[in-house]
Amino acid sequence: MNTDDLYSDNLGSQLNQFGSIASDSLDAAMDTDTLEMDGQGADVQDTVDDQEEDDEEFLEDDLSILMRAWVNERNAPDLLEYEGTTIENLMELVDFQTQKIKSQPPMIANIIKVDVDRVKYLVRSYLRTRLAKIEQHAMHYTRDDMYKERMSQNELEYAKGFVSLEEKHMRRSFLDQLPPHLRGLDETAGNGMNMVTKPNLDAAVFCRVRTNVGEFQFDTR
Fold first, then answer.
1. pLDDT digit string, tens, across residues 77-106
2. Contact at 8 Å (CB) between 82 and 151?
């Protein structure tokens, strides 16, 4: 056998062996990269899923708070504390979900729209209930510091504007035609009755105890 042929056979065998090893190494590297990319994709998907779950839990918590505040406001004779933080959080989520609807399939978009409409209804009903109370006793609420703290800034401005418009209307309608000593809107009669209406704090209400408070004595007045 020729020496060149032996050398050529050995070289060809070594090249084939090297090529096989290189190919196996390249395949292993590609598989590793694929696994890493799949792992990163899974991490990103898990992060998105976790964020959506957090948003859903956050939404449910705020919805529960708003639902309870809405029921209490509708049944309480007095103006209660304004849930400003809850309203702001829910409106931010409503804006986010409204933008999200545009990129969703029709069926998913309709489901999201139902949830958005439900939140909007609760917010509107809650605010309208509070405005109805403010209009009924606007002068009383604007003169008491405790009620001023319970109202939002917009509600307080609305109450002051309502009192001003009501006073102007009454003066133009009939008060200016009366003697000066009969033109007051906040006078107290001899029997102690005040012209400024107040909420009836003695009205009957229903209470549900949510936590154990032990022995409790209700006011007997």
1. 999 999 999 999 999 999 998 988 888 899
2. yes
